[in-house]
């Protein structure tokens, strides 16, 4: 039982490049979330999903897209990376609104 | 919008002390409150989850209380150890008018326990 896993762990991009971050969970959770963590800002919600095939915008969605084609996977895409997207990205999952959320180990992204 | 505040921002104590970390939130319509621990450069480890109907939860040397009506929670750490050094994050799930259950985070309390 791996819980929530994220790939890659680290990545360096040049401005304008694209990439996809993968989040996978093996707990059969319906709800999945992408957060970013920046110094002095706390964690902020980027996008979320309440089930397979559904996605919605969170607090800071600009510059990101997401997809949830399979229940266990939640992908975060950056189409044209900008230095402002330098951050640590965390994925989380939960059974429903009321239960504990479990977090992945994070992806540290640097955009030059 | 739900806002979460943690006080103090940083705390440095000698080993063995009992200590209290504070968390406050602006909207009492929450589903639950979670306390997390984050070590430098690492992910979030869930410590305690308190449902909105509960008053407290305990795990080992940790005790978390919740006063939903006043929008406050405290994390009590007994007999602190150097291994407790980390950043402690408070997060609440839910706010008025939302069924999403997303977490709203405070900025954390950075704890240092010295030998």
Describe the overall structure.
The complex is a heterodimer of chains A (112) and B (115). Helix content of chain A is 0%, strand content 53%. By secondary structure, chain A is mainly beta. In chain A, strands 2, 4, 5, 6, 9, 10 and 11 form a seven-stranded mixed β-sheet that branches. Chain A starts with a strand and ends with a strand. In chain B, a hairpin with a 4-residue loop joins β7 (62-67) and β8 (72-77). With 115 residues, chain B is mostly beta strands. Chain B is 0% helix and 56% strand. In chain B, strands 2, 4, 5, 9, 10 and 11 form a six-stranded mixed β-sheet that branches. Chain B has no helices and eleven strands. Classes of the chains: A mainly beta (112), B mainly beta (115). The interface between A and B is medium-sized, with 27 and 25 residues.
> DSSP strand (E) fraction of chain A?
over 45%
Mean pLDDT of chain A, to the nearest integer, reads 94
Which band does the percent of strand residues of chain B land in? over 45%
Calculate Rg of chain A over CA atoms. Answer: 13 Å
Number of helices of chain A: 0
Question: Oligomeric status of the shown chains?
Answer: heterodimer
Estimated structural class of chain A = mainly beta
Span of the ends, CA to CA of chain B:
41 Å
SS summary, helix count of chain B: 0
Brief account:
The complex is a heterodimer of chains A (112) and B (115). Chain A is an all-beta fold.
What keywords describe this structure?
heterodimer; A: 112 residues; mainly beta; seven-stranded mixed β-sheet; four-stranded antiparallel β-sheet; 11 strands; 53% strand; B: 115 residues; six-stranded mixed β-sheet; five-stranded antiparallel β-sheet; globular
């Amino acid at each position: 039982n791996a819980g929530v896993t994220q790939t890659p762990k680290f990545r360096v991009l040049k401005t304008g490049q694209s990439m996809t971050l993968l989040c996978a969970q093996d707990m059969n959770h319906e709800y999945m979330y992408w957060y970013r963590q920046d110094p002095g800002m706390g964690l902020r919600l980027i996008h979320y999903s309440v089930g397979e095939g559904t996605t919605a915008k969170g607090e800071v969605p600009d510059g990101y897209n997401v997809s949830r084609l399979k229940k266990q996977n939640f992908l975060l895409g950056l189409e044209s990376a900008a230095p402002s997207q330098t951050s640590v990205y965390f994925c989380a999952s939960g059974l429903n609104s009321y239960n504990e959320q479990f977090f992945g180990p994070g992806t540290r992204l640097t955009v030059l | 919008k739900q806002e979460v505040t943690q006080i103090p921002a940083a705390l440095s104590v000698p080993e063995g002390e009992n200590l209290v970390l504070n968390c406050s939130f602006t909207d009492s319509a929450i589903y639950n409150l979670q306390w997390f621990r984050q070590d430098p450069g690492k992910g979030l480890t869930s410590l305690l989850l308190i449902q909105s109907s509960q008053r407290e939860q305990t795990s080992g040397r940790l005790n978390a209380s919740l006063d939903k009506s006043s929008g406050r929670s405290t994390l009590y750490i007994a007999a602190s150890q150097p291994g407790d050094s980390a950043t402690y994050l408070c997060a609440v799930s839910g706010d008025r008018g939302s069924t999403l259950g997303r977490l709203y985070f405070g900025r954390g309390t950075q704890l240092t326990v010295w030998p």
